[in-house]
Amino acid sequence: MRPVRVLLAGTGTSSPVAMDKYISPFNVSLGLITGGTGDYTVQHTFDDYFNPPAGGAVWFNHSFLVNIGPNSDGNDTFPVSAIRLVCAAAGPSGTGTLVISEAGIGGA
Hints:
Blueprint lengths: L3 E6 L2 E2 L3 E2 L9 E8 L2 E8 L13 E3 L10 E5 L5 E9 L4 E8 L6
Antiparallel strand pairs: 1-9, 2-8, 3-8, 4-7, 4-9, 5-6, 5-8
């Protein structure tokens, strides 16, 4: 998979990025690039992203990419269905870019 960039300007929640949880071994690199001021958290879900349960998918905060202000990185080494970026508070020029790179998929 080519790296996917998810931009979030201001507060809110980005669109989720679906993962291929059937790749073995499952490895996803996460890079969070911040601009201005903000409070960013990476979240993932184990629920089927394409067929969520009634009431919607349950989202979990990443183990350590929580309430991040400066640039930071991490990974997911267990299968998740989708990943998204959440910003609880941002200054007027606050932006967060989440770069997601999933190993094991060939790309052109």
